[in-house]
Amino acid sequence: MKFVIDKTNSTKPLKFMPDFPPNKKIILFDGVCNLCNNAVQFIIKNDKKDIFRFVALQSELGNEICKYIGVDQNKIDSIILYNPGVAYYYKSSAALEIAEDLGGIYSLISVLKIFPEKLRNYVYDHIAKNRYKWYGKKESCMIPTPELKAKFL
């Protein structure tokens, strides 16, 4: 599902909201989830157009972005794709938008948009609910290597 950002309705004061790199989309992910970290590594490897930047949901910036776009982190168990100042996506819609932005063979995955979002999110929620059990959990968020540091905000 696409949510348009309404800056005029923001009532929550933010500690900071950095100027994001221009023309970059922000992926907020669970920094302690092995499945999520593997997905981030996959996206980085296949992001040939250098579209994405990454922020762990558990980080201060992750918290601030969620406040800004009006997402209650206690009620969402999902990856979030945030296009600064424009819109954000979560759950299956975020995953499909990311695949489409990767281009090439991965953009074919967006054909799954033909299925109702409710059905896609049912499958997404089942995986999200079991991700720690199936893939494990880290004790702390991933620390990017010096080569990858520029991809993380």
Automatic annotation (TrEMBL):
It comes from the Bacteria. Pfam families: DCC1-like (PF04134). GO terms for molecular function: protein-disulfide reductase activity. InterPro entries: DCC1-like (IPR007263), DCC_oxidoreductase (IPR052927). This is Predicted thiol-disulfide oxidoreductase YuxK, DCC family.
